Automatic annotation (TrEMBL):
Protein name, as recorded: Succinate dehydrogenase hydrophobic membrane anchor subunit
Annotated function: Membrane-anchoring subunit of succinate dehydrogenase (SDH).
Cofactor: heme
Encoding gene (name): sdhD
Entry-linked CDD domains: SQR_TypeA_SdhD_like
């Protein structure tokens, strides 16, 4: 039986891994990637099935189709969860890549800041679009809006 002196072990792969007391953010990021990956598979295949298989397939997707979906609270929340899980999952993956391959501290800080900023902006804008989308704007040309809008005068 061989014993290994812990002081002779190599450092972890990422030279920027932090060891500190308290919550292990790397562990929770790893767990999030696995859980969100499973959830995303279900959400994405549901999204593809509804949009491409049911009804007339891809030929049914137009403004009225999207407006009809976004007027239903179920689809608003479905798209909300799809947006948030996918964007945070992708951002966490990019954060891991930046930490693994960018060795200059200043460049890493700039890239991580840009990543966090762009993810936050996309989450805010995407959420606003999902929950504030109005398929029947007042005063719009009736020929250009969905059939369920009725009289817009």
């Amino acid at each position: 039986m061989t014993t290994t002196d812990v002081s002779q072990l190599d450092a972890p792969r990422s030279p920027h891994a932090r060891t500190r007391r308290g919550i292990n953010l790397e562990k929770w990021g790893w767990i999030y990637m696995r859980v969100s990956g499973v959830i995303l598979v279900v959400l994405i295949f549901g999204h593809l099935f509804v949009n491409l298989v049911l009804g007339d397939g891809v030929s049914q997707i137009d403004f009225a189709f999207v407006a009809g979906k976004l007027s239903d609270p179920f689809w608003q929340w479905y798209d909300f969860f799809l947006l948030w899980f996918a964007l945070i999952h992708g951002s966490n993956g990019m954060r891991t890549i930046i930490n693994d391959y960018v060795s200059a501290p200043r460049v890493r800080t700039i890239l991580l800041g840009a990543l966090a900023s762009s993810a936050a902006v996309l989450l805010i804008l995407g959420t606003l679009v999902i929950f504030t989308f109005d398929p029947c704007p007042a005063g719009a040309d009736p020929a250009l809006v969905a059939s369920f809008c009725g009289d817009l005068s």
